[in-house]
UniProtKB/TrEMBL annotation:
<keyword id="KW-0408">Iron</keyword>
<dbReference type="InterPro" id="IPR004017">
    <property type="entry name" value="Cys_rich_dom"/>
</dbReference>
<dbReference type="InterPro" id="IPR017900">
    <property type="entry name" value="4Fe4S_Fe_S_CS"/>
</dbReference>
<keyword id="KW-0411">Iron-sulfur</keyword>
<dbReference type="Pfam" id="PF02754">
    <property type="entry name" value="CCG"/>
</dbReference>
<keyword id="KW-0479">Metal-binding</keyword>
<protein>
    <submittedName>
        <fullName>Heterodisulfide reductase-related iron-sulfur binding cluster</fullName>
    </submittedName>
</protein>
<feature type="domain" description="Cysteine-rich">
    <location>
        <begin position="324"/>
        <end position="399"/>
    </location>
</feature>
<keyword id="KW-0677">Repeat</keyword>
<feature type="domain" description="Cysteine-rich">
    <location>
        <begin position="193"/>
        <end position="277"/>
    </location>
</feature>
<keyword id="KW-0004">4Fe-4S</keyword>
């Protein structure tokens, strides 16, 4: 048996070895049960074992696969688990689930419709570029769940008809960035390269514009890394390690050039930031991946780092009695850097209440048709918790989670830096066109 989640390990793709490791981990998780209220993987596992008189070895491959399918990769179990490395039991449940998906893909165990869904969700730059150019036609479709055309999409490519999908902007972030008139900064505090990934580039360029505007107001020179693509997360999460590592290597070459120029990398989507910080060094190990990971930051995290470095830095302050709800997205928590979006708003004088509950999206898991009902159940539970706060202003780091909250509550959710930009009285130049 190989207790490994390292894709370079010779037995990583050995299904017999994988099944033994699933049995070992499932026995330990069943004995602990601390994660009973996270994703559906754990209650599914516990119910299977409980009905077999506690005989963990009696789980069939199909039952093991049901546990794998219920995992949406939020990573919170790893954050909370007392048995992660360097503990002798070396549990890493999320990476074991990724290994299981990789074995399925390598052994061609995914059906035709699932592979079609994989392609649609993973080719984010192709799909994003096309949908952005046709945004006036695409947006009415993706923003209206349960329509006939969405049900046809679900049947053909497996994208849930129940979910509100993020809409596309009329202008790319990179186009706005190149068209803007940069603020003249005679004495830069720092230099940052904004890696927009597919979300900011095609769907939410306003977040990138807000980050750029706030950074430049604080004498942080901003630039764009050339030639980068999607971080590759969808390939990884569906188990296509070859495509993921190809994408990661390409991005690392370009991002490392940026770091060697003395710049830090800013990533505004928590899933993408997690992939660059934690997954690139695992799947493309070496000095390059480590160097890029060490210089990659969430925008709020980066501002708080600069505030600690330079006490003369002044964001200003506001006086307000309104309480803002900050949604702590799972992949923000999984980075173990703290809730810096919350801290940034508190630094400005905003009263912040934190709601930490999964949105049920987690990368692309919640958009797959087979996960639609479970995803909606989790989004509804999150929305119910937010609604109880009676807050009218909601912020969150994750654009996908924010879209799910909007779907449930009908309230536009902002990125914390976007709210900070408005509170600081800064204007985006040039203004972004609407969607």
């Amino acid at each position: 048996m190989t207790t490994t989640y390292d894709p370079s390990e010779p037995k990583y793709y050995d299904e017999v070895d994988l099944r033994e490791e699933l049995g070992r981990v499932f026995e330990l998780c069943h004995g602990c049960r601390m994660c009973f209220n996270y994703c559906d993987s754990f209650p599914t596992l516990f119910n299977f074992v409980d009905t077999k008189d506690q005989q963990h070895a009696d789980l069939s491959p199909a039952e093991q696969d049901a546990v794998v399918d219920a995992c949406f990769g939020c990573k919170i179990c790893y954050v909370k688990c007392p048995y992660i490395p360097p503990h002798e039991w070396a549990l890493d449940f999320p990476r074991l689930m990724l290994r299981a998906q990789a074995v399925r893909t390598a052994n061609h165990q995914r059906d035709l419709r699932t592979r079609a869904t994989d392609q649609v969700l993973a080719r984010t730059d192709v799909v994003g570029s096309l949908n952005q150019s046709l945004s006036s036609l695409v947006n009415p479709i993706v923003s209206r769940p349960n329509t006939p055309i969405r049900r046809v999409m679900e049947q053909v490519v497996g994208i849930s008809s129940q979910r509100l999908l993020p809409t596309y902007s009329k202008v790319r972030f990179s186009r706005w960035f190149k068209d803007r008139l940069p603020r003249f900064i005679p004495k830069p505090r720092a230099e940052a390269a904004i890696f927009p990934t597919c979300f900011i580039e095609y769907m939410a360029p306003e977040i990138g514009a807000d980050v750029t505007t706030v950074f430049e107001s604080q004498d942080i020179v901003c630039s764009l890394p050339e030639g980068v693509k999607c971080c590759g997360a969808p390939w990884l999460h569906q188990g296509n390690v070859d495509e993921f590592t190809r994408q990661a290597r390409s991005n690392l070459e370009r991002l490392d050039e940026v770091v060697r120029q003395g710049k830090d990398i800013i990533v505004s989507q928590p899933t993408c930031a997690y992939v660059i910080k934690r997954d690139y060094p695992v799947y493309v190990p070496g000095e390059q991946a480590d160097r890029v990971a060490q210089h990659t930051f969430d925008p709020s995290e980066y501002l708080m780092v600069q505030l600690r470095k330079d006490r003369s830095m002044n964001l200003g302050s506001v006086t307000t009695d309104e309480e803002v709800v900050f949604h702590a997205a799972c992949h923000t928590q999984a980075q173990n850097v703290g809730l810096k979006g919350r801290d940034l708003l508190k630094k400005l004088g905003v009263k912040v209440r934190v709601v930490a509950k999964c949105s049920g999206i987690d990368g692309t898991w919640g958009y797959r048709s087979e996960n639609g009902a479970a995803s909606k159940r989790m989004s509804a539970a999150l929305a119910d918790q937010i609604a109880k706060t009676k807050a009218t202003t909601i912020v969150g780091d994750c654009h996908l989670a924010n879209t799910a909250i909007d779907e449930e509550l009908g309230v536009r959710v902002e990125h914390p830096v976007s709210l900070a930009r408005r509170l600081m009285g800064l204007e985006i130049q040039p203004p972004l066109k609407g969607k």
